[in-house]
Prior knowledge:
About 35% of the residues lie in helices and about 30% in strands. By secondary structure, the chain is an alpha/beta fold. Strand 9 (about 195-200) and strand 10 (about 205) form a beta hairpin. The longest helix is centred in the middle third of the chain and has 35 residues, at about 110-145.
Amino acid sequence: MSKKLSTIIVDDEPLARKGLAVRLEDHKDIDIIAQCTNGREALEAVRAYQPDLLFLDIQMPGLNGFEVVEAIIEQGLTLPMVVFVTAFDQYAMQAFEVHAQDYLLKPADEQRLAQTLDKIRLSISSEVNAAHKSKLIRLVSDVTGNDCDKILQELENNEPVSISSYSDVLAIKDAGEVSRVPVKDILWIDAAGDYMCVHTHDSTHILRKTMKQLEEVLDPRRFLRSHRSTIVNKSYIDKFCSQLNGEYYLVMSNGKELKVSRSYKEKVKKAVVA
């Protein structure tokens, strides 16, 4: 592991802190950035340094080790990996209930400490690999147009990644950020000047594309044109209705009424009835 793990030792016993620090010096990927004598100092150190790893005594004056973890979570701080270190083994079960990486009994011998650090390294490696895999899947999704979950399923089944001619997601840029909107969640899209408004159940996204460009990337088995300025997702159409004046409209699953132009009336009616 090339990256050093910033580490804080917390124990109210000076000899315990020193003994653990000496043992950790043999592990070159461990960087001890602070030592604390009680829970409140530990909380402030976590806030100030945002460490990767916390060796935390359980029985201390003021805040005990479990209360330190609770306070970190309650205050919205980033919870580091936690290894509880204590002279009392009755806390072991409770330690793992608060998602500790491991539990060491004092005095921690070198072999047991090495096992704990190996477990931490493996956990970090797994998280890094998962992050890299997620990034790769997103890149493949951008190229193939397939949904990330579908790509992941194909990879897990050792199947070749299929390339769809229609996109499963729309990548929408807004203020320097890119939102990936699953097309299955789109209720309808309508034109607003030079932009398209992409409507989902809980939000509306602004997209700079033409109707023609959208029709080229959206599956016609799922989407259809209901108006020169509107594309609807057939899955969310509740009703096809007519008015006394001869005009037609759709009622979507969220209650929204969308006008159907005469030139698209028969096509829409056929799709809804089918």
